[in-house]
Amino acid sequence: MMLNKFGVIDVHGNDAANFLHSQLTNNIQTLDEDSARLAGFCSPKGRLLATLLVWRIGNAARILVSADLVEPIQKRLSMFVLRAKARLINSTNNLTVVGFAGNISESLLRCFKLLPNGVHGKINTPFSELIRVIDSDRLPRFLWIGPHGIIQETLSILDSTYQVKQADPTLWDWLDIRAGIPHVSAVTSNLFIPQMINFELIGGIDFRKGCYPGQEVIARSQYRGTIKRRTVLAHTEHAHAGVEVFHSEDPSQPCGVVVNSAAAPEGGFDCLVQIKLSALEHGSIHVGSPCGLTLYCSATNTPI
Question: What is the reported pTM?
């Protein structure tokens, strides 16, 4: 799947890792060249400006982020470089991002010779990287990032020789949702404290590392037990990221927000929805307005 929804920021310089370590929610200093790591970039109030996947390439670091956030995140991070030996470059136009999903390991081994071990394991190929990401519906998944020409040539080989089929990229969105992986984009930037979208549960936060923007708010929410909102998997007839949801017994104000949504293979849309935990106890949830489409728990097909 060609994943144009993602963009890439490269951070060059001897201080690249230390600089990102000081800005992101996860530990970048301990990140080695054989792995990738989820991380968030937050406002001083602890709200996620972006969710990221980060890995190292020698002295450089590479960031995978929602394509519509590449320029604002590059600009904002650059504001904090100061005297650090780090330079941020938008590499989106030079690289292609591909997602592989399914029982394709044998075919991939024909082209890559070696596959990453474990979730967020990474191998380096000439001019590109192959990363194992969280499985979805028991399907192994990989991200491959590299120059357009190299990727197109390899995809042609996989297609013609090993019959690896190219799927609609919206399928990757659905698989991410089924795996519980939230993605902050432009429409949801600056809305969520990381724990509201379960980001610490999938390894996106290191609570033992030093300070970064929003660290005090995030730590206070974690250790004082003040997390009153979480993200759940849900299903409805139609929804899109950023739309508010409402509780039947308190229609005057929204009780949550759709984080991500994607068309489900069997119809309708599956969603990750950030919601007040109290709203899950009784009543019904509606999309867009108190009279909107009903939101259902995809596991039980009953109103959440």
Answer: 0.94
